Amino acid sequence: MAGEKTERPTPRRLEDARRRGQVARSMDLNGAVILLAGLLALTVMGPTIVGGMEGAMRDIFARMGEPQAALSARGLEQLALATLRTVALAVAPVAGICLLASVIANLGQVGVKPTPGALRPQPRRLDPIQGAKNVFGPRMLFEGGKSLAKVAVVGVIVALAVIPKLTELAATVGASPALVSSELWSMVLSLLQRAALAYLAIAAIDFAYQKWHHRKQLRMSVQDVRDEYRSQNLPAEVKAAQRRRMMQQARARMMAAVPEADVVVTNPTHFAVALSYDGTKPAPVVVAKGQDLVALHIRRIAEEHGVPVVENRPLARTLHATVELGQMIPEELYQAVAQVLAYVYRVAGKARRRIVVR
What we know:
Layout: H1 11-19, H2 27-64, H3 67-70, H4 73-110, H5 128-136, H6 138-162, H7 166-171, H8 177-217, H9 222-232, H10 236-257, E1 263-266, E2 271-276, E3 285-291, H11 293-304, E4 309-311, H12 313-322, H13 334-348
Parallel strand pairs: 1-4
Antiparallel strand pairs: 1-2, 2-3
Helix pairs in contact: 2-4, 2-8, 6-8
């Protein structure tokens, strides 16, 4: 079918989607990268963190051994500050590394180019019908399958890591707490590392799916591609013809407003400016203006429809140079235009209108 979306999105379409905040991104990839970064930080800084917390705990227990000092207001304050300081020193490095990993993961997926369009509210997202399609559509089926796959993979990894270690854990019965804790930490760390690597593999598959789904949503029909190509690769003569057509249409609209004007101020031969004042605005409005042949055409239409033509060279030049079509005259020209309109109303016998001169 002619309107079927079968073509890959063009770079321009991808860029337009990016401006609207539509990019391919996997939240699972962010989570996997953060998890790996956190594990790496714990592996490298774990002994230091444990040593610091051990010293802090010894200090806390030593203070608690002195009830009178520990239970006083000053003692409780010092105890709380020491505990918070210990927790902060232990958490801050790991949290900082995880934060940096999150930023890097996001930038790696979407780049560094900001997309303000993503911050704009989109009422269509509140559509309940579209929301139901998203909930029960193929995308949610994929998300559900992905969640089940993550649970299954983690379960298999836990089983493969824990079952062979059961004999070794049984052998630690009666061992010192330090040996048991060291053995448990080694096993847990190994388990987490394997789970993180498996999670990263799932996240990579999810990122590939997100990119495929994103490009599928932006597919174009053959006609869309042709229209975009034509808009970008129009010959110079076609663009010039379009500009001429737009200028002709604008000039036709301008000339159609001349018969409704109150006066046409002329140079007399080089410039012509048509003014209209209906009393609804504070000052007259320029409804038509032109130079040379256009000015001659404006004067001819004005004479055919009985619109007064007044020669005022300085005023005509100033109006043509400073006032655009559809704009009111500036305040510094109120007096001069008011005099022209008063003269027209007096000579032509038109109904006198109130001119606001400030």
